Amino acid sequence: MSKNKIKIEVEPIGIRFFSGSPANCLKSIQDAGIEIKSVCRGKGTCGKDRIMFMNGSIKEPTEQELKMLSKEEIAHGVRLACQHDFTEDTSIYIPASSLSEEQKLQVVGQERDIKVDPTVKKYYIKLERATLKDVKADFNRIKDALKNTHSIDINRIDFHVLGEMPQILRENGWEITVSERNGEIILIEGKDRTARNFGIAVDLGTTKIAALLVDLSTGKTIDKKGVMNPQISFGEDVMSRIDFASEGSSKLSQIQQVVLDAINGAVKDLCDSNALKTSEILEMTLVGNTAMHHLFLGLPVRQLGLSPFPALTSDCLDLKAREVGINIASGGYIYLMPVVAGFIGSDHLAMILSTSLYNMEGNCIGIDIGTNTEIALISRGKLYSVSTASGPAFEGAHIRYGMRAAPGAIERVIIDPQTCIPKIQTIDDKEPAGICGSGILDAIAEMLKANIINKRGKFNLESGCICKDNMGNLQYVLIADFHIKRMEQNQNCGADFIKGVNGSSEKDMELVKKSLCSCDEVISINQRDIVEIQLAKGAMRAGIEILLENAKINFTDIDKIIIAGAFGSYIDPKNVINIGMFPNVPLKKISQVGNAASIGAKMALISKDQRKIAEDIGKMDNYLELTIFPSFSDHFATSVSFPSPEEII
């Protein structure tokens, strides 16, 4: 790489690119293939190209930015990309509102039929008008009508709803619809509105937020939306966010508010798309890991970063939405499923609930692969869970050309061992911008099969498939037809590349490799990338081994493996085995279920029985802290290695 190049890391997409110095931020971002909005074409008058500088020197705001941005945005490092240059290595965050393309987010998973019995129900009643002969209080009149007409006992009414009640009654001729929740009136509407009963289920992930708009009467999902968790701007991993929030109450409020804004925005978008008002949303269920759970509520998190990492509470929480800052019906509630421990949250319980893992017969494993990976084992009726920090690498973090699953990310790789040339598939068939989790896993597995790397993860110099980059580091280049256009524009290597691809001899192939290795923009996999995958898959495999050891069973005793989570939806199970994340088991034992956490949140939304089961799962789940097992280090050391060539299927 030439010395005047600087490295730019872009969140939440996860793209890392190199730019000249100095170089206009907007142009550099667009040249990197990131579709950032700029309606005014870089004049600074539209304010669409907002970015946030996450480290390095934060630029002083220009006069145009002082007009377009709020004081809070400026204080938080938000700037307009068109107004500044990149002058040093830095990280930036681009909010979803500034991007033209949405990331490939896994919002839902496999559902199963359950009895619909939501906590919130709606009843239509027609009341007798108040007269001088009948001066009964409005609330008492409603309570009596519900008791007589629907056999419903009401013991309280939301204070805000009490204030709204008299006007609604009189403007609608005393015909109203009452929304009741556990004996409390949480909404009163005019006329018959019983057919409009809505709720929202939210899976608050470290990286992604999934929201489902649900009809509480039928249990059907009306619409869904996935957005990135904007807390990424405060740290890509949980521990970084815990550290930030622990710096003081203002920092805690700041990191809480951005996620509240994101969820409120998703709710509004879902309502706008389906001709609803946010005030018609009566209930929200929310699941997430313990840190996301606490940060959403604005609770202290310092203790989550210190051994033994205790949660503040492992009970379910029933809170008024307005108390938290969520914009739904004024009397509406948010129900938060229990968390288990410092690194096992309610999203894990939601996965166990939605997959029915808790009552499966035999020995079954459930793995929710995300930024953090949680693993559960049911054996002889007992449930055990562990948490491993393996997700970031599988989501493209810490990989040189890694990125999240956005358009242009390489998501599939097949390598021809004879020519070393891979066939790749990118999301939306866009020109490659980087490689996401499923792509890096495929590539590593294929490199093992092609003997490009050995079981220790080291490059095989005799394979003829590797070369050095301009810094002298070994790498395997992901050659593809997509690169031809880019190579034609690069005078240093384009001509040799085209000549080599059009040829067929060994000499031609050497020309291809040589020409690619002289180009900065080529996407490749280096030794450090391989190590990151080894550490990630090693941690996951070691967690599985501890669960098996604790239950006194072997992997051959496992009857079923369930893979959940966004990353888990797109990986090839065969390659999971080929890199040694799982032992060599029959593929028929493995099933992929998508975002099981969001489905678990939905089940708790539409069924009181399922809500109770989730709470029972929380009580029966036995959390195992990996670091207290003496054998964990040995398992991890063994699990880092890849399988031998003869073990690969």
Characterise the protein shown here:
- This protein is α/β, with parallel strands linked by helices.
- The protein folds into 5 domains: 93 residues, Roll (Ubiquitin-like (UB roll)); 71 residues, Ubiquitin-like (UB roll) (Roll); 139 residues, Nucleotidyltransferase, domain 5 (2-Layer Sandwich), CATH 3.30.420; 148 residues, Nucleotidyltransferase, domain 5 (2-Layer Sandwich); 135 residues, no CATH class.
- The strands form 7 sheets. It has a 6-stranded mixed beta sheet, sandwiched between helices. A 6-stranded mixed beta sheet has the order 28-27-18-19-20-29, sandwiched between helices.
- β13 and β14 form a beta hairpin.
- About 4% of the residues have low confidence.
Do you know the CATH topology of the largest domain? Nucleotidyltransferase, domain 5
CATH architecture of the largest domain: 2-Layer Sandwich
| SS content category | alpha/beta
The CATH class assignment of the largest domain is: Alpha Beta
Query: CATH homologous superfamily of the largest domain - what is it?
Result: ATPase, nucleotide binding domain
DSSP summary: helix tally: 21
Radius of gyration equals: 27 Å
Low-confidence stretches: 480-504
Number of domains: 5
Percentage of β-strand residues: 15-25%
Strand order of the largest sheet: 14-13-12-15-17-16
Can you summarize the main beta sheet? 6 strands, mixed
Helix proportion range? 25-40%
Could you give the count of β-strands?
29
Oligomer: single chain
What's the N-to-C terminus distance?
38 Å
Q: Averaged pLDDT, please?
A: 86
